[in-house]
From TrEMBL, chain A:
GO terms for molecular function: ABC-type putrescine transporter activity; ATP binding; ATP hydrolysis activity. It comes from Paenisporosarcina quisquiliarum. Residues 7-238 form the ABC transporter domain. Keywords: ATP-binding, Cell membrane, Membrane, Nucleotide-binding, Translocase, Transport. The keyword Ribosomal protein does not apply. This is ABC transporter ATP-binding protein. Signal peptide: none annotated. It holds the Pfam family ABC_tran.
UniProtKB/TrEMBL annotation, chain B:
InterPro entries: Bact_Polyamine_Transport, MetI-like, MetI-like_sf. This is ABC transporter permease. It comes from the Bacteria. SUPFAM superfamilies: MetI-like. Belongs to the binding-protein-dependent transport system permease family. CysTW subfamily. Residues 61-250 form the ABC transmembrane type-1 domain. It comes from Paenisporosarcina quisquiliarum. The keyword Kinase does not apply.
């Protein structure tokens, strides 16, 4: 644990009744001043983590630390965190100013200070001049900003955001992504953001926790997680990917689709069964004799920036290709790719083992 | 389409005429200088004068109003607390059981409530009079308040409470700063309904009153049995006007509190 750690989960389990736990023995650390994203499908336990940090529920077992102090039983109103709710949870009987001032009024601050801080918070979220509006007069995006202002005005150490952008339309959502990221950097506060939208997570975060079935599958920077997914679930959830079964014949040799290929992975047992991931944008269209692999084009969609081709190899594996080049449907084409584009995933590998394996490659590269 | 809507309007008008004619007939004859309702002689206010000259009647009127206001206030307080208790009860079975018990009290006939209170009061030894009437009025008003407040509470998103706690509010502050302001329209509706129920209650009061203490409805009943005088008409007319004012007051209050919650487009 470093001095920079602000929140620490130690073997936290949360279960309702006696059924399978929503959160299963989760441990992690959150560092000060970073933008974290909890990413996963609905029901994976990401909101549960948020509610545990906010203090709306207590863990069934395990401990939660905040600034080094155990906070398992500290009630929500005594915690140094504020939440932006999915439905905004603005008080309909109060206007914009009073909504933002709510927390400050509870703290019984002086009138002038409340006014000053509320107006400052409004300025921060680009809502100057809206202080006398009623909540019903605000649009979805504006309500969102009020909710954020209401959280930041209390100057908490951590701000929790529970899918705050999910109710907005696409354009506004992208806009708010930029704004939130910028706001976090300006404030320098820790943001913990919950979402099921992988693009949102990749675009905004310093660090992503990918969750599934109550367990953190993988944590790392957006690039780490995108380039080196630990397992089939992460690879599938983050971006589009081609995942096929393969066999690791020897170090740097992998077999899939009935052929041997050169790859960048080593240290696996010989003939170990693995999953192979190749991102669609890493596949390049070429002629049949030049390609490393021969596939038949099944469908082709124009996506604007690129064509999306669905192709099948002889074994019936589907290969999704993103290419700026066009191909004819029904035609046989060759696919070319770098050895580095092949990502090998061991079955049932833990995050620790995975990290160790990746590190060993790095050392080797340095040695060279 | 057009014809049927015209027809339905005529039907509606007919229903209202049938409902309101007796009342206006009654009030109309309260201005009759003659002593009966068979023929209208000339306009006069003598029956109203008689009402105001009768100090006993005025005392009864004041009693009725005091009972109505007190019972409405107390039952609103109890009902609001009860409704909040019911809504935030964790166990669904006991919550439904409590709600059913509450609803049974609303639908059960006044006669039964009155009779059972009479038995209770005589058993316990409460002297029949002001206190017994007040207690029984509170008792039958509480379920009404609960029913009026409950929908507002259920409509309130639980994240509002989470948000208030998150912003540092204690449980007490959550209640006073979020829950109560949010359900205010329901509280007002419950209060006014309790007020009108208490004002015009006859059956329950008839059972539990005694020692010379009466309310207006019981008094009018006994006056009518002694023989019709137009003083009753005048009294009924006054009561009708008071009720009308109450309804208008309720309408005004709820409209004002509802206004900020109206769904509106940004200006």
């Amino acid at each position: 644990m470093t001095d920079n750690t602000i929140i620490r989960f130690e073997n936290v389990t949360k279960s309702y009744d006696s059924a399978t736990p929503v959160l299963n023995n989760v441990s992690f650390e959150i560092e000060r001043g970073k933008f974290y994203t909890l990413l996963g499908p609905s029901g994976c336990g990401k909101t549960t983590i948020l509610r545990l940090i906010a203090g709306f529920m207590e863990p069934t077992s395990g401990d939660i630390y905040f600034n080094g102090n155990k906070i398992n039983h500290v009630p929500a109103n005594e915690r140094q965190v504020n939440t932006v709710f999915q439905d905004y949870a603005l008080f309909p009987h109060l206007n914009v100013f009073e909504n933002i001032a709510f927390g400050l009024r509870i703290k019984k601050l002086k009138k002038e200070e409340i006014t000053r801080r509320v107006l400052e918070a409004l300025k921060f979220v680009n809502l100057e001049g809206y202080e006398n509006r009623e909540i019903v007069e605000m649009s979805g995006g504006q309500k969102q900003r009020v909710a954020i202002a209401r959280a930041i005005v209390n100057d908490p150490e951590v701000i929790l955001l529970d899918e705050p952008l999910s109710a907005l339309d696409l354009k506004l959502r992208t806009e708010m992504q930029y704004e939130l990221r910028e706001l976090q950097q300006r404030l320098g506060k820790t943001f913990i953001f919950v979402t099921h939208d992988q693009e949102e997570a990749l675009a905004m975060s310093d660090e992503i926790f990918v969750m599934n079935a109550g367990v953190i599958q993988q944590s790392g920077t957006p690039m780490d997680i995108y380039d080196e997914p630990i397992n089939r679930f992460v690879a599938d959830f983050i971006g589009e990917s081609n995942i096929v079964p393969g066999v690791m014949i020897a170090d740097y040799r992998v077999q899939f689709g009935g052929k041997d290929f050169e790859c960048a992975d080593k240290g696996l047992s010989p003939n170990e069964k693995v999953d192979i991931v190749i991102r669609p944008e890493d596949l390049e269209i070429t002629t049949v004799d030049r390609g490393k692999m021969t596939v038949k084009v099944d469908t082709q969609l124009f996506r604007g920036v690129h064509y999306e081709l669905s192709t099948f190899d002889k074994d019936g594996n589907e290969w999704l290709v993103h290419s700026t080049k066009k191909a004819a449907v029904g035609e046989e084409i060759g696919l070319d790719f770098d050895p580095e584009a092949i990502h090998v995933m061991r079955l049932n590998e833990t995050e620790e083992e995975f990290d160790k394996r990746l590190e060993s490659y790095g050392e080797e590269n340095h040695a060279k | 389409m057009n014809r049927s809507s015209k027809l339905s309007k005529v039907y509606l008008a007919l229903v209202f005429i049938i409902l309101y004619t007796p009342i206006f007939y009654l009030i109309f004859y309260s201005f009759n200088s003659g002593g009966t309702m068979s023929s209208f002689k000339s306009f006069s206010l003598e029956h109203y004068k008689a009402v105001f000259a009768d100090t006993r009647l005025i005392m009864i009127l004041i009693n009725t109003i005091i009972i109505a206001l007190l019972s409405a206030l107390i039952s609103t307080a109890i009902g609001v607390i009860g409704a909040i208790g019911i809504v935030y009860l964790k166990n669904r079975k006991s919550r439904n059981a409590l709600l059913s018990l509450n609803n049974v009290l609303i639908v059960s006939p006044d006669v039964i409530i009155g009779a059972s209170f009479l038995i209770l009061f005589t058993m316990v030894g409460v002297k029949l009079g002001f206190a017994s009437v007040l207690i029984s009025h509170i008792a039958f008003s509480v379920p009404i308040v609960v029913i009026m407040v409950l929908p507002k509470l259920q409509e309130m998103s639980s994240t509002l409470i989470d948000a208030a706690l998150d912003l540092g509010a204690s449980k007490r502050e959550v209640l006073s700063r979020v829950i109560i302001p949010y359900i205010k329209p329901g509280i007002f509706a419950g209060f006014f309904l309790a007020l009108t129920y208490s004002l015009d209650d006859f059956a329950v009061t008839f059972f539990v009153t005694g020692n010379g203490f009466t309310t207006l409805s019981v008094e009018i009943y006994s006056m009518a049995r002694a023989g019709i005088t137009l003083t009753i008409n005048a009294l009924s007319g006054l009561l009708f006007i008071v009720t009308l004012l109450l309804v208008l007051g309720y309408y005004f209050v709820t409209n004002r509190t509802k206004n900020p919650l109206r769904t509106g487009v940004p200006k």
